[in-house]
Amino acid sequence: MRRLGLLFGAVLFAVLVIAQTLPQQPAQNLDYFCPMDPDVRSAVPGKCPRCGMTLRLGIPDQIEYPLDITLAPRVPKPGERLDFTFRIRDPRKNTPVTKFETVHEKLFHLFVVSQDLDYFVHDHPVPQPGGVFTYSATLPKRGLYRILGDYYPTGGIPQLTERTIIVPGGHLETAKLSPDLAPQHAANMDVELVTEPAQPLAGFKTLMFFRVKPAEGLEQYIGAWGHMLAASDDLVDMIHTHPFLADGGPQIQFNMIFPRARTYRLWVQFQRKGVVNTAVFTVPVQELK
Questions:
Q1: For 190-217, what is the mean pLDDT?
Q2: Which residues contact 129 (CB under 8 A, 6 or more apart)?
């Protein structure tokens, strides 16, 4: 037995020596991910089952691409037309970005929310030559507005960039929101929200089940079964997200991690028979005790 042990050890040593002399093959990174939903991973190339985007190989650098906004007139007035011009810069070269990836059928998603969270817009600026985007709106009242730009520079990663504009003359104060999770009637459907847990907690996953009625005629809206924007009452947090589970049926599930213990207003959008429905809920989020 002792001789067999010595013989086995000698053979193992020889194998190790030979293995070290053979050319080493570089390890391959087979970690494909979705640029829009980074938690979606795959060992093989393909499409994201959640949003349909092409999976990319490897994890890119988390680089922020600055967004510049020009207004005309420079001093906005309530109730009057305001023209926006958006330009995105490549931070590595400080040059304009001229190429963008299509995300949910659009190159640029724009959200505008007033400080009292009563005014909400989800729209899509028009691409112009040279990577410029333009958009026109009429802001209804004085005060602060938060702008959220959602765009994907080619060669970079998807961006969610927040900016602030002010229509002079208003009072800059945090909105006072009361919880409202009652079923909502939208353009041509009713929308009910059930959360799990019933009391959302900051920093923990909240499952959000939106139940629509009637579900007959439900359609994808700009490439997804739904879109949701969540904004905290102080407008510090703005989160644009899409369904985690949806199949065209009456229940659409979003997963959300609220970053802080605040009151959040949610705008959720579904399309039925060509009509976009926007339902609004107000959700209180508490700290874990």
A1: 98
A2: none
